[in-house]
Design brief:
By secondary structure, this protein is mainly α. The protein has 19 helices and no strands. Helix 6 packs across helix 8.
């Protein structure tokens, strides 16, 4: 079933779709009400998208658009996934404590901040000069497709950009001298998120601020929760504005608001593109390891990019549309697990993913007393982890980017301490 076919079905039975979406939201609220802290928590967006996908599958089944076995497969995998989240989130971790102390920590943090903030600015301008502005591209994936040097640049802007934002919030809160640079960088981040075509750019900035407040400042967290609905409204308007700009005047702003809202329903697009008529059986699942770890295998040249499997979402989209665009639905764990491991193997696959998310969620709220840099690394990990439900391969690529980029940063830190040690030795010799 193509996107157009589903839209026609949805308009024909809109009452049924509305009922299914409402039912799924009620179920998720009852299941995850103890997880809720703020609407700005990345978990909330993940749960909303998951609930919409759940509603879409129920709707397809009620309309006799999918076979019983695919509906049962979805229910079993989703039950296993949620069970893994809830079970492993209840693990009784103790509050994490510092096991080591960093020499000249404040001076080191200032140096790291200067490195990441200016690196992000320079790299972002290099991307625009050599590749173009992603906002005006047919597909944002074209800008960072595998095998090109641009992919490495995007890794740095993704990871160091978030890290620079966290340091900016810290410098503003502490009223350090670098706070003026911090204000400028936050404005720069808003502008580049629009130019990069990110519909959740403002939301990503606010989410980063929320995560910072959770792990670093209870006072700011209280203020955010007080005004979170206003912040959410601004985020929706900002996302709709990006949709409006990227449409090249083909739709008006009101239509862009509707299109932005439709994206939540389209979180279930992988289900209507794979379950009806058994399209899921046509997807190649003969190379599960390469499919899941494609970014690691390709980025370290273990296997050449052109010999690795095509991203599953792109393969699914091309079954319905004859196009060369690098676009497609997110292969959510229910579909990816079924394709790679079969109906029964997918249940274990989904449970393991849920267990990982539940564990990281539990650890995040125990990290308030760690060193600042360690806390920021945990924030990055927490921000990425919920992507496992929507696209395992892409989420692994984010963690691979985190490893590569932080490895470079730690190398620079090592060089700093080495130079510092040499200078101290020379100073002692002079005395």
């Amino acid at each position: 079933m193509s996107n157009l076919d589903f839209i026609e079905l949805a308009y024909e039975h809109w009452e049924a779709l509305l009922f299914c979406i409402s039912f799924s939201f009620i179920c998720y609220i009852l299941i995850f009400k103890s997880w809720y802290i703020s609407i700005l928590d990345p978990f909330v967006l993940s749960a909303v998208l998951s609930a919409c996908g759940f509603g879409v599958v129920i709707f397809l089944f009620l309309c006799n658009a999918i076979q019983l076995k695919y509906f049962v497969s979805y229910l079993l995998t989703q039950f296993a996934f949620i069970s893994g989240m809830l079970l492993f989130n209840r693990i009784g971790f103790r509050k994490l404590k510092n096991k080591f102390y960093i020499l000249d920590e404040n001076k080191l943090l200032r140096i790291i901040y200067i490195i990441v903030i200016f690196s992000v600015v320079i790299i972002q301008f290099i991307i625009y000069k050599n590749i173009g502005i992603p906002l005006f591209m047919d597909s944002r994936l074209e800008a960072s497709s595998g095998g090109s040097g641009a992919g490495l640049l995007f890794r740095f802007t993704t990871v160091w950009g978030t890290l620079a934002l966290l340091f900016s919030f810290y410098n503003i809160e502490k009223k350090n001298k670098q706070r003026y640079i911090a204000y400028c960088f936050i404005l720069f981040s808003i502008i580049t998120s629009i130019l990069n075509g990110s519909k959740a750019g403002f939301g990503g900035l606010v989410t980063t601020f929320f995560l910072y407040s959770v792990i670093c400042s209870d006072h700011i967290l209280c203020q955010i929760r007080k005004h979170e609905k206003k912040i959410l409204l601004i985020g929706i308007v900002a996302g709709s504005f990006v949709v409006f700009i990227s449409s090249n005047d083909e739709i008006n702003f009101i239509q862009s608001l509707i299109a932005f809202g439709e994206r939540f329903i389209f979180s279930g697009d992988v289900y209507w593109q794979t379950y009806p008529n058994g399209y899921i059986e046509r997807i190649d699942g003969s190379r599960p390891f390469e499919t899941i770890f494609v970014d690691i295998l390709g980025s370290y040249r273990i296997i050449p990019w052109n010999e690795l499997p095509e991203p599953m979402g792109i393969s699914i989209f091309r079954m319905h549309v004859d196009t060369d665009l690098l676009t497609g639905p997110n292969p959510r764990h229910n579909v990816m697990g079924y394709v790679l491991f079969g109906m029964y193997g997918s249940i274990l696959f989904s449970f393991l993913l849920g267990a990982i998310i539940g564990t990281i969620h539990a650890l995040f709220y125990k990290a308030c007393d760690l060193n600042l840099l360690i806390k920021f690394l945990i924030v990055l990990s927490y921000g990425y982890i919920f992507g496992l439900e929507g696209d395992v391969s892409y989420t692994i690529s984010l963690y691979n980017s985190l490893f590569i980029v932080m490895l470079v940063l730690f190398f620079l830190i090592l060089c700093y301490y080495l130079i510092l040690s040499i200078l101290r030795v020379k100073r002692c010799m002079c005395k």
